[in-house]
Amino acid sequence: MDLKVGIVGFGLRSSLWRHAHKPGHGSEVTAVCDLGERGRADAAEKIPTAVVTDDLDVLLDSGLDAVLVLTPDNQHAAVAVRTLKAGIPTFCEKPLDVTLEAADLILQTAFDTGTRLYVGHNMRHMPVVVQMRDIIQAGTIGDVKAVWCRHFVGNGGDYYFKDWHAQRANTTGLLLQKGAHDIDVIHWLAGGYSAKVQAIGELAVYGDVGSRRDNTARRMGDWFSVDNWPPTEQTDLAETIDVEDISMMNMVLDNGVLASYQQCHFTPDYWRNYTVIGTKGRIENFGDGAGDQIYVWTTRTTSGFAEPDQKVEIRDGEGGHGGADPLLIAEFLRFARDGGTTATSPIAAREAVAAGVLATESLRGDACAKLVPALPEELVEYFNAGQPARVRER
User: CA-CA distances (angstroms) from residue 46 to 10, 30, 134?
Assistant: First the structure.
């Protein structure tokens, strides 16, 4: 029998509905809740068999087996806490929320209710990340000692500075909102979580662009174009912009690994570059899509740039983000139905939020290091054990 799946928030990540709505093949989207008229209209057009509403109670009472929380980031906890309390296995889009308190509340609620929680860190299914981790796990470069990530966000002006992303109230900052993916990947490749973080950053370009407007009723498809270049000539930016467009973050992980993350939203190119250095060599990706390559160096040289000892081609995949999106939803639906281990981790998702939030506090303060507070041990044990069945409190 198909799982009955609900969706809360039919906006930027609503494309995930395609992977959840497969009537007769395991799952069907039967209810959608969105506060916006346009979101409801889009849902009704794409999934005409679903109940479409602006009332979350209607969705919660519709007999769901699973739910995707795809609202703007600062509403994740407000919705996920209610879906978890209703006993509905919950997919929460990354980041868990925009504050550490809200992220911890989601985890605590999942623990207290025993309701399954899954977080949408789809990059744990992206071929480039999976293949780099496989090389590390095989011991090819020895013990990891450093991870560097440079993120060239070439579409930053169109993606993040024309809508709700541009305001701290909605995101805390892009070092968290956009960086949560990469912080999680850094943690995953390094095998540890940030214990101490420090950062610097600025609103260096988009704050000086004078063309502004209210884009509330518009969507990215209404304004996106590669012709919006150079960044200083962008038009129709959000009326309020108070997040950084360039940031640089340093991390000391709890296993001694040192890491750094750099994010820039006004580059001409759009890709991520990871470098992982171990005791026996290093790896680095050149491009992050299908057909690009991961270079592996394991032989010492005495001159400048040397050809790598091995070149690994990055695999292809069907669906968004190199095939990661369909794999992500398939894993969540399997987890909602049967439980078990998953590639994603609520603990890891919380640690990415914690690192991003505290790094943002650092860059907006005096750039001093911030210590990451630990979760209660009972929560760590519960989620690391795969969220075993619990007797729900009455």
Answer: 11, 12, 38
How are beta strands 212-213 and 237-238 bridged, if at all?
parallel
For the four alpha carbons of 28, 181, 313 and 278, in that order, the dihedral sign comes to negative
Residue 358 has which token pair? 């505290």
Q: 90 and 138: one domain?
A: no
Task: Tell me whether residue 280 is in a domain.
Answer: yes
Q: Are residues 113 and 149 in the same domain?
A: no
| C-alpha pair distances (Å), 326 with each of 48, 379, 385 | 21, 29, 25
Question: Domains in the chain: how many in total?
Answer: 2
Predicted confidence (pLDDT) per residue in 203-249, tens digit: 999 999 999 999 998 988 899 999 999 999 999 999 999 999 999 99
d(C-alpha 181, C-alpha 189), whole Å: 12
248 and 267 in a common domain? yes
- 171 lies in the same domain as 90: no
- Residues 99 and 156 occupy one common structural domain: no
Give the strand pairing for 271-278 and 282-286: antiparallel
| CATH number, position 338 | 3.40.50.720
In a domain, 130, yes or no: yes
Per-residue DSSP letters for 61-76?
A: TS--SEEEE-S-GGGH
Share of the chain residues as helix, strand and coil, in percent rounded to the nearest 5: 40, 25, 40
Residue 30: inside a domain: yes
Nearest to 351 by CA among 53, 95, 144: 95
Tokens of 62: 């519709």
For 73-115, the pLDDT digits (tens) are 999 999 999 999 999 999 999 999 999 999 999 999 999 999 9
CA distance 34 to 373: 34
pLDDT at 40 over 80: yes
* Phi-psi map region of 386: left, alpha, beta (phi>0 left; psi -120 to 50 alpha): left
Note the pLDDT tens digit of each residue in 249-306. Answer: 999 999 999 999 999 999 999 999 999 999 999 999 999 999 999 999 999 998 889 9
Assign 201 to helix, strand or coil: strand
Range of the domain at 103: 3-121+322-344+375-384
What would you measure as the largest C-alpha separation in the chain, in angstroms? 69
